[in-house]
Amino acid sequence: MELYIDTANLDEIKRAHDMGVLDGVTTNPSLIAREGVAYEQRLAEICEVVSGPVSAEVIATDFEGMMAEARERAKIAPNIVIKLPVTPAGIRACKALSDEGTRCNMTLCFQAMQAWLAAKAGAFLISPFIGRLDDISTDGMDLIHQIRTIYDNYGFSTKLLAASIRHPRHMLDCALAGADVATVPFKVIDQLLKHPLTDVGLEKFLADYRAAFGS
Length: 215
Ligand code: E4P
Known about the structure:
Elements: E1 2-6, H1 10-18, E2 24-26, H2 29-33, H3 39-49, E3 54-57, H4 63-74, E4 80-85, H5 88-100, E5 104-109, H6 112-120, E6 125-128, H7 130-135, H8 140-154, E7 159-162, H9 168-177, E8 181-184, H10 186-192, H11 196-213
Parallel strand pairs: 1-2, 1-8, 2-3, 3-4, 4-5, 5-6, 6-7, 7-8
Helix pairs in contact: 1-3, 4-5, 6-8, 8-9
The chain binds erythose-4-phosphate (E4P).
Residues 6, 26, 28, 107, 127, 129, 131-132, 163-164, 183 line the site of erythose-4-phosphate.
């Protein structure tokens, strides 16, 4: 499973990148707005740090507007992936852009047949939002299982990118379910390495070393 970070914060992106395990970045308008910087400038800055796919969402909701914005965003860097909502206009734009060779990430996916249409339209990535489904008392993981089955049944090459991940248990479930990519906030990447027995064990190793060999 590939690891993307879900943030527009440059410091978090650099810290995850420095670990050497980061495959890409997803952003959305809310995440970039939180940073208080110009939208396209931040996308360009992210692409200077990460060479893997960087998702850049369009703001337009109509087909022509989406196409115009997508073409502008695609000029920022070769690793930009255009992020579009799974609406009728978004699916149409996905098909047109994919036919031109521009990679698309179809976002705000909350039911499996949206993912099926996105794959038919040639999407590079589909983003089902697990956490937001859990928030309304619907099991987000069911959606991951359904999309995995449909994509495998028909041999679609669209990558299943699990999004709206809230905690390490989501990550584990996604890996077991065969998600191709998980995009997570920095906080969750940090939590993945946390275990009390790791901390206690390390403390003991170091204490034993110091007792025997000095500091
Ligand atoms: C995905 O690309 C989205 O940016 C993201 O995962 C949304 O997560 P949230 O539900 O925590 O806002």
